[in-house]
Amino acid sequence: MTKAPVTVTVTGAAGQIGYALLFRIASGQLIDAETPIKLRLLEIPQGLKAAEGTAMELDDCAFPLLESIDITDDARTAFEGTNVGLLVGARPRGKGMERGDLLEANGGIFKPQGEAINAGAADDVRVLVVGNPANTNALIAQAHAPDVPAERFTAMTRLDHNRALTQLAQKLGASVNDIRKLTIWGNHSATQYPDLFHAEVGGKIAAEQVEQSWLADEFIPTVAKRGAAIIEARGASSAASAANAAIDHVHTWVNGTPEGDWTSAAIPSDGSYGVPEGLISSFPVTAKDGKFEIVQGLEIDEFSRERIDASVAELVEERDTVRKLGLV
Ligand code: NAD
Ligand code: LMR
User: Fold this and answer.
1) In this prediction, what percent of the chain has a pLDDT beyond 70?
2) With CB atoms counted within 10 Å of each terminal CB, which end of the chain scores lower, N or C?
């Protein structure tokens, strides 16, 4: 059975994540194996030639679901009629650049992309921001798309979630399939808080199956600083695992979470768990009927509260910086 095609725009398409992502989208892993895909690749002018090379390789795969590939350096063209926007391209932190400089440089990317999404994307558009600082870049894009429902702008913490699953599984000699209800709270940064107090392994609370010292001194920092560890080991930031997480995030958003489980995604706060309304912060979320919902009613102890608050405080600081710059 063939469904209606879905138009997917990938920004930064010629970058490392783009290269790991596009083939998986075109092969049917983003939505499902029956939905044809129309790809739009957005790059800066210097990236267009490499994007054309990637498009040649996509052609050479003869993917049955891939209907078309368009390449452009114009955001309006790239987002016209888009159903799924994967905002990967971002300005990396350069030498001597302060956090504020980085946020300002990214404002120059995510503001026009938000405007382009507002102007031309499909009514059901869903946006995932991968480019760092992802949560605040998502906030900037959202601020410039007032006609798009706010909850359609999300940022990626699924990679952190997947990292935490494997660290925990390896510690307990379990399989990732045995783990439920793990949560990443807060920012996609080193302040994030991977929470094992609600997570279950084999039906029992994960935090009760590990030593407190491992949880506090090994697990949390290993997950939170994994991005930096990959850069150190690979000489480049994570790419295939980031692309994999982007696929997981959108697939879950569209197809739902399994009964009795949840996942992590940075979505606009409704004020739950003391996170200021409107901040794009990571929460435990379920997905149903194409919508993410924050899991309600979890008890948060002092240990978790402190860590959630610290990460949320960083997000508030980032929001205040981009506010001062007039970006939100
Ligand atoms: P990369 O440098 O290999 O590729 C980025 C691409 O974006 C480049 O080809 C560049 O030309 C393009 N680009 C820059 N500005 C653009 C614009 N205005 N419009 C369109 N394209 C533009 O980087 P990468 O390794 O692919 O990583 C991309 C981003 O993802 C980085 O910000 C990285 O920090 C972030 N990241 C996030 C996560 C996460 O979990 N959220 C994980 C890994 C990486
Ligand atoms: C990651 O988590 O792997 C990346 O966000 C790291 C980075 O700084 O690009």
Assistant:
1) 100
2) N
Ligand 1 centre distance from Cα of residue 48 (Å): 14
Q: What is the pLDDT of residue 1?
A: 59
> What spacing in Å lies between the alpha carbon of 81 and ligand 2's midpoint?
30
- Check pLDDT > 90 for residue 96: no
Packed helices 240-255 and 158-172: angle between N→C axes, nearest 10 degrees: 100
In the set 144, 161, 188, 198, the catalytic residue is 188
Whole-angstrom distance, CA of residue 118 vs CA of residue 11? 16
Q: How far is residue 197's CA from residue 207's CA, in Å, rounded to a whole number?
A: 5
**From ligand 2's centre to the CA of 256, what distance in Å?**
26
Phi and psi, residue 262, nearest 5°? -145, 180
Identify which of 224, 244, 216, 189 has the alpha carbon closest to the alpha carbon of residue 301: 216
Strand 37-42, strand 66-72: pairing? parallel
| CATH C-level class of 158-318 | alpha beta
Task: Take atom 9 of ligand 2 and give the residue whose Cα is closest.
Answer: 237
Kindly report, residue by residue over 231-282, the tens digit of the pLDDT: 999 999 999 999 999 999 999 999 999 999 999 999 999 999 999 999 999 9
- In CATH terms, the fold of domain 6-155 is Rossmann fold (3.40.50)
Torsion angle, alpha carbons of 277, 107, 14, 245, to 10: -20
Q: What's the pLDDT tens digit per position in 7-23?
A: 999 999 999 999 999 99
Q: How many percent of the chain have pLDDT more than 90?
A: 96
CA distance 57 to 61: 6
Annotated binding site: 12-18, 93, 99, 106, 113, 130-132, 163
Whether the Cβ atoms of residue 309 and residue 274 lie closer than 8 Å to each other: yes
Q: Spell out the domain ranges in the chain.
A: 6-155, 158-318
Single out the residue of 156, 323, 327 nearest to residue 227, CA to CA: 156
